[in-house]
Amino acid sequence: MLSLRRGTVTAIPEIHEELIRLEVDGASTVAFPRLTGPVEVGDEVVVNVQARELELGSGGFDVLYVNLTRGLELAPDEGAHVMTLPYTPLQSAARHVEEDGALAESLDGMPVVCCSLHSQLAPACAGLGARVAYVQLGGGALPVSLSDTVRALKREGLLEIAVAAAPCFDGDVQAVTPASALAWCAAQGYEAAVCSIGPGIVGTGSLLGHGGLAAAVAANTVAALGGAPILAVRMSEADVRERHSGVSHHVRAILDLCLTDVAIAWPRGQDAPDWLVPREEVEVEGWREACARLPLSHMGRGIDDDPSFFMSAYAAGKAARARLG
Q1: Among 115, 123, 239, 320, who pairs with 196 as Cys (CB 3.0-4.6 Å)?
Q2: Which pLDDT tens digit goes with each residue over 57-80?
Q3: DSSP assignment of 220-244, as one string?
Q4: Other beta carbons less than 10 A from residue 226's beta carbon
Q5: Domain span at residue 13?
Q6: Model pTM?
Q7: Domain identity same for 265 and 124
């Protein structure tokens, strides 16, 4: 069941073209204006309150469902007919890249960093430092526009475009599948790509029931298309949960599902578990300076709280950079 309530917009503290942070009767709310239209103080709205009421980790805010004042009878994008979120109450037509030109038949060796968490995206891009495209996969937040990290990476010149691969939506461009998203990136001349889930992660505490397995989907797809998949290893010195202490059990699950060889980037000089083989040791000297201007945060921990987490993602970016010649 949807948990909806009616309210009034009481404040709008932050506005971006693709994301608005507002308050509805004092409660923090996000709105996606490309989906639900513009918002102004005083508007009568309906918001989805379920995640906040369930006190989920990612549920510190409500989501605007419909603006009753100025969000009704909105016209679809011109020329769009393929639906995002099809057959759900939020289905909407969007132009897809597959409709607007040929896709590359091969990635032709293009390196692609495969991340299991959105918090790995920034350090991976810092390690790459090339003409990079981001492809967001299902497993976390679906709207690409929710990511403050994507906006920061664009400002720093470390990311050029964000592609939403269904079921994700609201990126700079939209693709039907991860395969077509990557083939489009190659056709557009991007030198490398980073694949990840959106902010947050769907998780159940089980080995297979988590959104991080999107990294295995990405790695298999990249290899099948003739690219070079590189896994960003999830590791932590600060996570108190046994399954995520050291190298996460998610990494083992991802590797077990990879149907082909995938490069496992590893920071040179760091101790690694015996089962994590074969590893590609990467020199990561200067990684802190390279990441200094970026928003690094994982489970509320920053660069000084859990450096190995960010260092390992940076190593994956460096491994991808080395393949660019």
Answers
A1: 115
A2: 666 799 999 999 999 999 998 889
A3: HHHHHTT-EEEE---EESS--SGGG
A4: 14
A5: 4-67
A6: 0.95
A7: yes
